Amino acid sequence: MKLVTFGCSYVWGDELIPNTPEYRNLNNIGGIIYKNHKFDDYINFAVCGASNERILLQILEYKNSKYYSEDDFILVGLSGLSRKLNYINIYNQAFTIPHWNNMHLTNFEDEEFVNWFNLDKKINLNYKNQLTRYGINLLAIKSAISDNKYIVFQSIDDVDFSYDSVTKESYIKNVPLKLSTIKNQTDLYSTVLFEKEKIKKEILKSTNKNQLWLNFDYESWFYFIKNKHQPNVYETLKKGNHPSELGHQIWYRDFLKKYIENII
Amino acid sequence: MKLVTFGCSWLYGDELIPNTPEYRNSNNIGGVIYQNHQNLFTNYLNYSGNGASNERIAMQLFEYINSEHYSEDDFLLIGLSSPARRLDYINKHKIPLTKPHWNKMHIKDFEKIDKDFVEWFKLETIYNLNNRNEIKRYFLNLNTISNIIKNNKFLVFQSIDNVPNIYENVEFDNWFEMPVHFYSKEKNDEYEIPSKIIFSKDTLKSFLNKGLSKNQNWINFDITWEDYLKNLNDDDKYFCNGRSIHPCENGVKIWYNYIKKYIEDLQ
User: Fold this and answer.
1) Domain range spanning residue A43?
2) Burial B212-224 (b: 16+ CB within 10 A, else e)
């Protein structure tokens, strides 16, 4: 059984120094799990800036590679809900919008492109779009890993806050749907994608005891070490952003370990 | 067992005249199936709506499975919509907006009151409308739909658009693929793969067809309802007003004959 990990910079091990593949993958979360349990190999598909859509691409590549086995144990650290992946015409590239700031715009001198980016933020950045994307991405990830043992957790962001906030958005209407019978027709306004318990129920449907979704019931890795280890926050979060060696160890020791032991 | 249908205007029965719930739902595809198999179905519910994207069809399904109407015994008929269609919740105007044809159909209302919105809509088309984004969205939406319906008997077909054509024409020349990185402990090294697997029709097919039981059929990669009617070369006979937009009563009946075998298999 191999350990195979997927995620964003948290699972990749960003800011661990020295930044060599060997050091990073000895001290990141996958490296720590590998050292503490008996796995035949450890493969890490995580990368900085990944959206949940990009995590799905990581899993698709793994499943279609020579490395795939139904026997493998999969660890997925979900990314920020606002992140999305677009294939961009003219520049002919995939573009991840990580923080909706100007971080990825410095390379673009095309004023029209920068204008599109800013307008997209103004017109399209809200909890409804984020939670719609989150529900749909998670169901696709679930399909992709359904034959394996796995743990899925949230690396960053506050999922509960997003679900709590969406109901406060003063939208005129949710998506109007119609329900017709031969005799009459009624209007419905769809809210299921904004209700955590209903999405959670759908995600948990047909899973087994070795397939755990911890992202709905527990805070993210970021908030876990920030809240639980506040006095030493800069020992556990480098520059307040990414977990240090200690931040990786704490997430394993105080949170993930018991679930991994139960599964393997 | 109830017959429950989901989809866009083609399953709603748009342009069938008179436009009453009773006439429409007696002569749209669900109505025709129900009338021909009353020994099989105890009721007919239709969640379809005009202009629906596949995301919105997923919402129709979410509403159904969380409603008092849901039963694992029901037969679900789903007519997928165009992969180009997309649902966005729009700030400021506080509405959900479905882009049906990526033209100006839904822009007219905004032209005088919100120039930023009109500019964003135009730029979205320039930067973001391509087969790649459509295929990614199609993959995600169909996996969502697949998860929701897996405990029921179902038939899923494509109402409009030519899906194989979208996969055949995905833009590959001079594109930089999304890199997927991986580290192998055994080899102690990192590698980079240009990720293209999502653009293969077979990738999605393998997901949708996995673990299917009897009476669970995805025929969305076969001919679409729209193309099936257009290939008959008699738009006046099979489309409402001969306009090639929505099927008339004849266009519904001939599609029923095409999918009838899947319904008869339920008996």
Assistant:
1) 3-82+125-263
2) eeeebbbebbebb
Q: Is A70 on the interface with B (CB under 8 A)?
A: no
Q: Give the pLDDT confidence of A32-55 residue by residue, as tens digits.
A: 999 999 999 999 999 999 999 999
**CB-defined contacts A:B, below 8 A:** 224
b/e string for B178-200 if b means 16 or more Cβ within 10 A? Answer: bebbbbbbeeeebeebebbbbbe
Residue A106 forms contact with B (CB below 8 Å): no
Residues linked to residue B195 through DSSP beta bridges, in sequence order: B178
Distances, alpha carbon B53 to alpha carbons A38, A173, A186, B88, B211, in Å: 47, 17, 20, 11, 26
Among B166, B121, B160, B159, which Cα is nearest to B139's?
Answer: B166
Q: Who among B12, B65, B198 is closest to A57 (CB)? A: B198
Domain count for chain A, please give it.
1
DSSP character at residue B101: S
Q: What is the ipTM of this complex?
A: 0.93
Q: Which residues of chain A have a CB within 8 Å of the CB of B149?
A: none
How far is Cα B192 from Cα B131, in angstroms, rounded to an integer? 24
3-state secondary structure of A196: helix
Radius of gyration of chain A (CA): 20
Angle between helix axes A127-144 and A159-166 (nearest 10 degrees) is 130
pTM metric for this prediction: 0.95
CATH code at A43?
A: 3.40.50.1110
Contact residues, chain B, for A67 at CB < 8 Å: 184
